[in-house]
Design brief:
Elements (H helix, E strand, L loop, with lengths): L2 H9 L6 E4 L2 H8 L7 E4 L4 E5 L4 H8 L4 E3 L3 H12 L3 E4 L6 H10 L4 E3 L3 H11 L3 H22 L8 H14 L4 E2 L4 E4 L20 E6 L1 E3 L2 E2 L2 E6 L5 H20 L6 H14 L11 E3 L6 E5 L12 E4 L2 E4 L3 E4 L2 E5 L4 E3 L11
Parallel strand pairs: 1-5, 3-4, 5-6
Antiparallel strand pairs: 1-2, 2-3, 7-10, 8-9, 9-12, 10-11, 13-14, 15-18, 16-17, 18-19
Helix pairs in contact: 7-8, 9-10
Length: 356
């Protein structure tokens, strides 16, 4: 069907005759077609996308009529395809197929062996982790929308606004400026709430002397952006400035360490060492970053447990933070494209401490 499905078909040859992809995200990755219902069969002999009547015409226009079949007869059609093409071993997504789906597959397709270990999952994750130029282009476009939204909202924030109001304004601006969706539920936390890395925006009113942390992103052509900025309202005391400077130094160190061949552990360590040496190591609990693409969290995982090695084409976040319980927190997040010689920062929003 396309270069991605051909690559997957070749990659699974050592352990399976075909791959059956049921998850919406992976179906989209391999076809470029978004649908809430469907299944994708990938094999050397043929590639078939199954979906229902809600999507048939659109799918045929996108993928070609010969590649699309009615999902209402999924199991009967699969059984016939398997028999006629000598397909005996079918790999499935071990991390995404539910137990009920697995039981149903075993029941309806007794003539095949389901390869349910992590072999297919590992292959898909590896392919998705390395972005093609058009994927990077969509991520960058989404990021520019998010940055324009932030520029607008920073000019609107005033004491007395609630966290929820600021979050809603960010979301409105991203959608009105061209985002097809939001990457995730926007985080906007202030004052003592900013010590919660994934706090939920509430009715707390922002006040002079607060840090305001905003974590948000846009979706363009199915690809996500992700950024975080922390700003101060009215004023910032000495420790707030010291913590902010430490987080920025840590993020700069992580970005400097990111390159093809660097382990995710070492990229994380670069940021973690800066924060630890400043005396705040106990207040940085999460990983330094993660992959971004058709999902907001993808491989590779840049953390103390990160077993992967960065490769050219990875798009990963760099987002260290310091969170002082009951007082305040700071996180600064950019996205970086890994290259052979280092990384290209895809985020253009300023990072010096902004006091509104």
């Amino acid at each position: 069907m396309n270069i991605r499905t051909r690559a997957l078909s070749a990659a699974i040859a050592p352990f399976a005759d075909a791959a059956l992809i049921l998850s919406e995200t992976n179906r989209f990755y391999y076809t470029g077609f978004a649908a809430s219902d469907g299944a994708l069969l990938v094999s050397p002999a043929l590639t078939v996308f199954y979906t229902d009547s809600r999507y048939t015409e659109a799918a045929e226009n996108k993928l070609g009529k010969e590649a699309v079949r009615d999902s209402g007869r999924l199991y009967e059609d699969l059984a016939a395809v398997f028999e006629s093409n000598g397909i005996e071993r079918v790999a499935i997504e071990a991390d995404r197929v539910t137990l009920s789906q697995f039981v149903e597959l075993q029941k309806k397709l007794p003539g095949v062996t389901l390869v349910s270990d992590e072999a297919l999952t590992k292959e898909i994750n590896a392919e998705r982790a390395v972005k093609a130029p058009e994927e990077v282009g969509a991520i960058v476009e989404a990021q520019r929308i998010a940055e324009r939204a932030l520029d607008t909202v920073l000019g609107l924030i005033r004491p007395g606004m609630t966290e929820k109001e600021i979050a809603l304004k960010l979301e409105y601006e991203m959608l009105s400026k061209g985002a097809e969706a939001l990457s995730f539920e926007t985080i906007c936390v202030s004052g003592a709430n900013s010590s919660l890395p994934h706090g939920v925006p509430g009715n707390k009113k922002v006040e002079n002397g607060d840090f305001i942390t905003m974590d948000f992103g846009a979706v363009v052509r199915g690809y996500h952006s992700d950024m975080t900025r922390t700003v101060a309202l009215g004023r910032a005391d000495g420790e707030m400035r010291r913590v902010y400077a430490t987080v920025l130094e840590a993020q700069t160190a992580a970005l400097a360490a990111m390159a093809d061949g660097t382990t995710c552990f070492d990229a994380d360590k670069a940021a973690r060492d800066v924060i630890g040496n400043a005396g705040y190591g106990a207040y940085f609990g999460h990983g330094t970053g993660h992959g971004v693409g058709v999902e907001i969290h993808e491989k590779p995982n840049v953390s103390p447990r990160g077993a992967d090695t960065l490769k050219t084409g990875n798009v990963v976040t760099a987002e260290p933070g310091i969170y002082l319980p009951g007082r305040f927190g700071v996180r600064i997040e950019d996205m970086a494209l890994i290259t052979a010689s280092g990384c290209e920062n895809l985020t253009k929003a300023p990072k010096e401490l902004i006091i509104l």
